[in-house]
Fold this sequence. Notes:
Pfam families: DUF3460. The protein has helices at about 5-20, 20-35, 40-50. The protein is an all-alpha fold and about 60 residues long.
Amino acid sequence: MYNYQSDVTQFIDNYIEQNPQEAEQRLKNRALLWDVELNPEEQADFEAAALPKPPYAYQSVK
Length: 62
């Protein structure tokens, strides 16, 4: 069975094991950036304000 772990992965695992408060802080920080509920009204405004995507720069326009 393939059980390789990089040095970085081993370091992070050991660090989290020795500092369990960091795992909790990591989850709190993740919630700030990624686990955010979007306001549907604001989201609709963002979509309405979006500009059309320009064509590929090297595509000839006919």
